[in-house]
Amino acid sequence: MANRNNNRTTKSNSDPMYQKHFEERSIKKIPAQYTTGKFYYPTEEELSEIITVEEHWQFGDRLYKYAKKYYNDESYWWLIAWINQKPTEHHFKPGDKVVIIPNLSEARKLYYRE
Questions:
Q1: Per CATH, which fold does 44-112 belong to?
Q2: What is the distance of C-alpha 40 from the center of its chain?
Q3: How far is residue 91 CA from its own chain's centroid?
Q4: In this structure, are residues 54 and 99 in contact, taking their beta carbons and an 8 Å threshold?
Q5: What pLDDT band is residue 95 in, cutting at 50, 70 and 90?
Q6: How far apart are the first and last CA of the chain?
Q7: What is the pTM of this model?
Q8: What is the sign of the dihedral through the CA atoms of 99, 105, 109 and 112?
């Protein structure tokens, strides 16, 4: 199974800014941490080539509820956030359009650029 961190590099962190924390933990550096990922959002053209559905955000909506409804798996909430270029549900306002790719395989294929 693909992991959303598969294409990210790791780096060691020995920045002096963290020296106090390193000393408290008896370490000289953070052995490995992921670099900031680059997000490639789906283009309008890509979305026009696959089946999507639209919901309209309402008070009380949650991304994990949409993931459960469409993918039968709450853990894919982040995929819906990514498609809509809104990192959390707090970025949605009532009435906002929520685009969902109901076919999980298609959504994952687009995300992972498989």
A1: Membrane-bound Lytic Murein Transglycosylase D; Chain A (3.10.350)
A2: 11
A3: 13
A4: yes
A5: very high
A6: 12
A7: 0.70
A8: positive
